Amino acid sequence: MALSSPHDVTRRQVLRSAALGSLALASGVKNVFGQSSTRAPNIVFIMADDLGYADVSCYGRPDLRTPNIDRIAANGVRFLQAYANSAVCTATRTALITGRYQYRLRLGLEEPLPVGSNIGLPPEHPTLPSLLKKAGYGTTLIGKWHLGFLPTFGPLQSGYDHFYGFRGGSLDYYAHQGTDHKDDLWDDDVPVQQMGYLTDLLGGRAVDVINRYAKSREPFLISLHFNAPHWPWEAPGDEAESNRLRSASLAHFDGGTQKTYLQMIQQMDRQIGRVAQALAAHRMSDNTIVIFTSDNGGERFADTWPFTGRKTELLEGGLRIPAVISWPARLPRGRTTDQVTISMDWVPTLLAAAGTAPDPAFPSDGINLLPALAPGAPPIPRKLFWRYKANAQRAVRDGDYKYLKILDNTFLFNVVDDPMERANLKARRKDVYERLEADWYVWNVTMLPEVDDSRTGANTGDTWADHIGARPPSGKADNPVSPNTATRPR
Question: Based on the number of CB atoms within 10 Å of its own CB, is 325 exposed (0-12), middle (13-18) or buried (19 or more)?
Fold first, then answer.
């Protein structure tokens, strides 16, 4: 890798010092401009798949222990109001890697991206790994991609130096085949055959990559995107279920138990512990940012308490996710924050920590969270928007209030006082309801319109007994006209 010029290094130091200034002042750090303060932090971004808000013990799950995830929270900050950019994976991952609303890209309209699609993340679009790479970072993705298929799209085409994982939406934990029952395990752009439980293979590769970066001494981004606890419901030792599914759907609505689901989460936690041990062995823990989160709300076996709703739904349970961050050199430890955050915030946050910034031609829709994480800092006000094609779902979060539309039904909830979304305040607080509804229409015209040929998924009554009468989505686009204007979304 080419060495940066002295001018570039100075610029990164200035940007990093500015980003951390409020943290340093608030925490009493004296040597904010010294060598240790300006050394680029390593970044390990860990993402679970379809993990519910309360599916780890530090968020209240009473029937399992996740000591390694809990340790990240104990060493840093736990978000109490973290949202996914979408209620499904491809859309959230588009926002996560670009730092922008997913609806700005055609890829982001896929809910989720089907196998064999010719749609993907444009390689020329700036991403978190491509921007960190320009700042001197090594970049590796381990695990799930799901943002487009070869030959045009892939992790190596969008800023990662290395890739080990799978390209589709799910992978059998033993057969390493996707939903089309074709092999989908890759080392860079080369298909590979390996024996072993997928969660263990991903954790082992993460340890190996940390060891290599430790020898090179370059700062690094490792995106460790687990398949767990996404279906198929296969815990360690469940090879028999994997064999059964070789001729059945990986989504298998005739499989899975709470016990299996918990074992899948616990095995992921063990691999996160191995990653933490590798960082500690190389004395990297202090200046490594470690983030743990999920791509959307929980699926059928998940614990989403105190929320209702699931994956594919814009109810809080489909959007609220666990999110913890530790950076012992910079962030307070053992704290919680009421800062409202969303997946796309991680791009400006991590770029600021690394001393760089988003591409000016593609400004982030997220915010840099570092100032809000300083001790005593007040939460930054947020206004967040969503839409989901199935069932014509729309949502806005502003302050404590949330506007929600599902089919032809509309609601206003105070989701702080009423996290289960039961008390519809749209008549009692008509002023707030009308303002948020109008705000959604203003925002929506700045996004790509929905299209008929994008995929969208939903929970239906034939497979979910608690979704009585829920029908499969029509797939038709819904691009409504604001009741206050005759202008359609562009």
Answer: buried
Does any domain span residue 3? no
**Secondary structure letter of residue 390 according to DSSP:** G
Structural tokens at position 204: 């082992």
Same domain, 358 and 469: no
- Which ranges of 378-422 would DSSP assign to H, the alpha helix? none
How does pLDDT run across 25-77, given as a tens digit for each residue? 333 333 332 234 568 999 999 999 999 999 999 999 999 999 999 999 999 99
**Number of structural domains, the chain?**
2
The first and second tokens of residue 350, run together, are: 């991590």
Q: Is the dihedral of CA 245, 250, 251, 255 positive or negative?
A: positive
Q: What is the DSSP string of 134-186?
A: HTT-EEEEEEE--S--TTT-SGGGGT-SEEEEESSS---TTT-B-TTSSB--E
pLDDT per residue over 187-245, tens digit each?
Answer: 999 999 999 999 999 999 999 999 999 999 999 999 999 999 999 999 999 999 999 99
Tokens standing for residue 404 = 């929600």
Q: Which of 341, 373, 405 is a domain's end point?
A: 373
- pLDDT computed for residue 225 by the predictor: 99
Q: Is 108 helix (H, G, I), strand (E, B) or coil?
A: helix
Q: Between vectors from CA 66 to CA 63 and to CA 68, what angle results, nearest 5°?
A: 170
Q: CA nearest 131: which of 325, 344, 355?
A: 355
* Complete DSSP assignment for 171-227: --TTT-B-TTSSB--EETTEE----S-HHHHHHHHHHHHHHHHHHHT--EEEEEE--
Q: Taking residues 469-482, what's their average pLDDT? A: 91
Tokens of 139: 């970049």
Is residue 362 packed enough to be buried (19+ CB in 10 Å), middle (13-18) or exposed (0-12)? middle
Regarding whether 264 and 146 lie in a shared domain, the answer is yes
Residue in the block written with tokens 């015209």: 445
Number of Cβ within a 10 Å radius of residue 401: 18
Position 72 in a domain: yes
CA distance linking residue 382 with residue 380, whole number of Å: 6
- The answer on 240 and 147 residing in a single domain is yes
pTM of the model: 0.92
Is 261 within the bounds of a domain?
Answer: yes
Phi, psi of 368 (to 5 degrees): -75, 120
Given a cut of 90, whether residue 15 has pLDDT beyond it is: no
- CATH no. for residue 321? 3.40.720.10
- State whether 190 and 104 are in the same domain: yes
Other Cβ atoms less than 10 A from the Cβ of 195: the count is 7
Residue 306: partners with Cβ closer than 8 Å, 6 or more residues away: 54, 419, 420
Same-domain pairing of 390 and 367: no
Same domain, 462 and 481: yes
